[in-house]
Structure formats: C-alpha cells, structure tokens
Design brief:
The complex is a heterodimer.
Chain A: E1 4-13, E2 19-28, E3 33-37, H1 44-52, E4 59-67, E5 70-71, H2 77-86, E6 88-91, H3 95-98, H4 105-116, H5 121-134, H6 140-144, H7 153-167, E7 171-175, H8 183-200, E8 203-208, H9 211-217, E9 220-225, E10 228-234, H10 235-240, H11 245-253, H12 255-265
Parallel strand pairs in A: 3-8, 3-9, 6-7, 7-8
Antiparallel strand pairs in A: 1-2, 1-4, 4-5, 9-10
Helix pairs in contact in A: 5-7, 7-8
Chain B: E1 2-12, E2 21-32, E3 37-42, H1 48-56, E4 63-68, E5 71-72, H2 76-79, E6 83-86, H3 90-93, H4 100-110, H5 119-128, H6 145-157, E7 163-167, H7 175-191, E8 195-200, H8 203-209, E9 212-217, E10 220-226, H9 236-243
Helix pairs in contact in B: 4-6
Classes of the chains: A alpha/beta, B alpha/beta.
Chain lengths: 273, 247
C-alpha cells in the first residue's frame, strides 16, 4: 500500500485562463479514507479527475501527483491507462452514465477485465459472481445479462463497487457515490463502502457534500470552497471543533433538521427491532 | 381539499402490443385538507412521483377517483391557478429562452392577467423567496441551482395556489441551500396558510416540514403517520426506512 500525494495541483481553463482549483496539496496515507467536502462548483470532482487524469481537454493542470514512488503526472497516456482500473479506481455518481447503455452490464464488465487482466471468460464470471454476492447482488447472472436501464441506481452503484473488488485497486476514488440514491440504498451502499475498505484495505478518496455520509466513513476531511482548500484535519476535529467559518457553516447547516428528527425519534440512539 | 379514493395505476411493459402491464400504484386512498403539510416518502420506484403526476392531473389513473374540491382534477379548468408544482430538475423546469421575469409571468397570463406586467408583484415574489429584483432580467443558465429552484418556487407561488406539490424539489441541492429552502417553505406555510404536498426520499427533511407522512412501498401505502408519532410506527418497512436515515 502506498500513500497518495498531491502537491501544488492547479487546474485552469485553457481558453479563459480562469483558475478552477488553486494550489491544492494534500496527502492520503495508505489505507486511510480522505473525504473531500464542499458545495457544488468547489472543485471537488475536478480534483478527483485530475488524479485519474480524466478532465476534459479544455482543462489544463499543473503540479505533481504521486502514488507511492510512481509519479502519475509524468506518465504517458498509455501508461496511465494501465494504472486506471488496476491501481486507481473511480466510482462515479451516476451509475446510469457510468455503464455503456447499449450493451449489457456483463459485456461492459468483461471488456474492462479483459483489458486489464486478460482472464478467461469462466474465470471472469467466477470472480464477478463472488464479488457480486459480497455486495448483495445475489442474482448475478440476471444482473450481468441486463442493460443499465433495467437496474436501479443503487444496484448499479453496488455493481461498480463489485467491479472495484475484482480489480483490487490500491486507491479507490468515489465521486459523490451516494448523492443520486434514495435513503435506503444510500445506507446500503455506504455499508458496502465500509466493507470494501475492510476487504481490500485500500486507500480511499470519498467526495461528497453530505456530511452524514462523510462522518460514517472518513478518517480525514478536507473542506474546499471555490477551488481552494479552506480547512483540513482529522474527521473528529472537523465535526466537533471546526476552525474555519465556512466549515462551521457547513457542519451546522443541517443540524436543525437532524436535531428535529432526533427529537422526534426520542434521543440519539434509536434503533427499531 | 384533495380526496383520493382507491386509485390504481399501471404502465405497459414489455414489447409492443404484448399487453403486459406493470402495476405502479394500487388502491391508494387518503385525504388532504387545505393548509396541511403532507409528506409522501418512500424509496425510488415506490410510485411516489407517479402519484404526484396523478394529483396534478397530468396523468389519469386506471381506476379510482381523485377529486380536487369535489371536482375531477383531470379537468384543467378545475385546478387552474389553485394547484402548483415544483419539480426536482430545476434546469429543465424553466424555458431556457425565457428570462426570470417572463417565466414568472407565464402562470399569471394563464389565469387571465393582461396588460402591463405587474412589476411590483414580481419583485415581491422574488423577495419572498429571497432573491434580488435584479434577477428579473437573467436567463436560467445564469442562475445557480439554488437560485433557479427559488425562481421555480416563486413561479409556483405567483397564482397564490391552495396547494403546491414538491416532487423531490430539494434533493439535488447542496445541504446548506436545502436548509434555506426548507426554512422558506416553513415560513410560507405559517404566514400564507399555504398547504404543501412534499414528495421526497429525504426523511429528515420531510419530518422537519410536514405534519403527516405517508410511507409508500411498491405502489401501496404502508402507513400514514403523524410526524409527532413517528417514533411509534408499526409496520416493519417503516421501521427499516427510519433506521436507514443517515444523520
């Protein structure tokens, strides 16, 4: 396991020259989970994509990104393509757009696995079946044979996690994986993320604007606003003693809703049986 | 006053002419009284949004009746100006070629306003939702998500309807903006005596705003519960749903 180090990352629009992310440096220790929190337009997703080098052609980036002793920013396009998937794995917000709509889930998955590992067909199905049972997609043959539109958002999200389990990456980057989901699937997907970390012991970058989810997963939190990191620190510090005004604002934004709900349910630790 | 009585709805599924139907709603009955804040919660695919469309009269149910003040809701004359809606996707809710002003005027013209646009009314509407009157000349793409959603709410308010239906109206907004909109709605319900039907999967928000919650699963109503008795829900599904709230 290796640390992921981002130093002096700057992303700008090549046409207008406007800086979108300014001088962003952070380190994710091996096996830890870093959450990037911020409102829409704060540059969270851009940072993630910069690590994968997947930003659109109109955007330029400078600065160094290291994964252990590999300098990701110095690799050629061909080399980074090998790294994506096997070492770095990106889980996206919208499952419907992450899979090819014109082919079945199974053939999308096969394509990915064949590219990275060149396994035989039966090997692939065996490994996928195991991973899919782990994320509670029990009827795996039916799911592999269906098209993305036939599955729910939560199922597609879990499918992406299953794929990540098979690929065994060193770093998993999750870009708003629970935002598009309803309460129940959000809860289930979040549980799967926790299990994924247990299984692979991988380093994780988790992007979200939902502080409830962040609280459940993250070891460290990084708060971004308008492309600048305003605060970073251990999750417990950020939630209990935020230093920056903006962090305080984010942390307290939904307290009245949450407190109201807690009061209705009669205290902090309600669980039905 | 809404009375919904034994409503069922199904969509055609499968290949053309196969005649196979997939049931989305079955045997839904409840009442909504003016001024009430009613929440409809459930997972995606539970038929919440279909129910919303039926309430708005955009679609007709296969069987059962939906009466708005005693008359059929499907006839647009019966509901004109008295029911409004705000949808989840704020980017596609406003005509991209319309300025904010024109978007706000649209429902007013529809209920028979004519002559010079009533600028003071528009300004006070914008002020009510916390926007500046300088927004009036802007186009939708110049607004942020929260601002666009507020314009949609202002537009829904413009005809002073009895009931506004919100279909996942805050789900795609940031946490802090969600909070501002919730506060706004709370204020509107107490000052304007306006009633809401609030369709969402965000149980925390629904419990914050609404006085009564309908819990739906697979197209049926599992339980109707008053928010202050949320603790004592009976069905196992409602319990599961409440347990999975992430605070």
């Amino acid at each position: 396991m290796k640390d992921l180090v981002v130093s002096k990352l700057r992303i700008w629009d090549s046409r207008s020259g406007a800086a979108l992310v300014e001088d962003s440096s952070f380190t994710v220790k091996a096996g830890k989970c870093l959450a990037i929190v911020g409102e829409s337009g704060s540059g969270k997703s851009l940072t993630c994509r910069a690590i994968m080098r997947l930003n659109k052609a109109g955007l330029r980036q400078s600065g160094d990104i290291w994964l252990g002793d590999i300098k990701l920013t110095a690799l050629t396009e061909k080399e980074i393509r090998r790294i994506r998937g096997t070492k770095l794995c990106l889980i996206l917000q919208n499952g419907m757009r992450a899979f090819d709509p014109s082919s079945t889930i199974g053939s999308s998955v096969r394509e990915t696995l064949a590219w990275h590992y060149g396994w035989s067909r039966s090997e692939m199905i065996g490994k996928m079946a195991k991973a899919m049972t782990a994320v509670k997609l029990d009827d795996y043959l039916r799911i592999l044979n269906s098209y993305p539109h036939q599955l729910s958002g939560g199922m597609l999200q879990r499918m992406m996690i299953a794929l990540a389990i098979v690929l065994e990456p060193e770093v998993v980057i999750a870009d708003e994986p629970t935002t598009a989901l309803d309460t129940v699937s959000q809860f289930e997907v979040l549980q799967q993320f926790a299990l994924l970390r247990e299984r692979l012991g991988c380093t994780m970058v988790f992007v979200s604007h939902d502080l409830g989810c962040v609280k459940k997963l993250a070891d460290e939190v990084l708060i971004m606003k308008n492309g600048v990191i305003v605060e970073k620190g251990a999750a417990s510090d950020i939630f209990h003693a935020p230093r920056h005004d903006y962090t305080r604002y984010l942390v307290t934004a939904k307290t009245s809703v949450n407190q109201h709900f807690r009061r209705l349910m009669g205290g902090d630790s309600f669980v039905f049986h | 006053m809404f009375s919904i009585d034994k409503v069922s709805m199904s969509y055609r599924s499968g290949v053309f002419f196969s005649g196979k139907r997939h049931s989305v709603l079955s045997d839904i009955s409840f009442q909504w009284t003016p001024g009430e804040c009613l929440g409809i919660i459930g997972e995606s695919g539970s038929g919440k949004s279909t129910l919303g469309k039926l309430l708005l009269g955009i679609q007709k149910p296969d069987s059962g009746t939906i009466l708005w003040n005693g008359k059929a809701v499907t006839d647009h004359k019966n509901r004109r100006g008295s029911i409004s809606a705000v949808f989840q996707d704020y980017t596609s809710s406003i005509n991209p070629f319309y300025t904010v002003e024109k978007a706000l005027l649209e429902p007013l013209l529809h209920i028979g306003a004519s002559g010079k646009p009533p600028y003071p009314v528009l300004d006070s509407l914008l002020e009510q939702v916390g926007l500046d009157s300088s927004c009036r000349g802007k186009y939708p793409h110049e607004l942020s998500g929260g601002e666009a959603q507020r314009v949609c709410i202002a537009r829904a308010l413009s005809t002073k309807p009895q009931c506004i239906l919100f279909d996942e109206a805050i789900s795609s907004l940031d946490g802090s903006v969600q909070m501002q909109i919730l506060e706004l709605l709370k204020e509107l319900s107490s000052t304007e005596k306006m009633g809401f039907i609030f369709i969402t999967h965000d149980i925390g928000a629904a419990a914050y705003l609404c006085s009564r919650l309908i819990i739906m699963q697979d197209g049926t109503i599992r339980e109707i519960v008053h928010t202050d008795q949320l603790k004592s829900v009976e069905t196992s599904y409602a319990k599961k749903l409440l347990n999975s709230v992430i605070l």
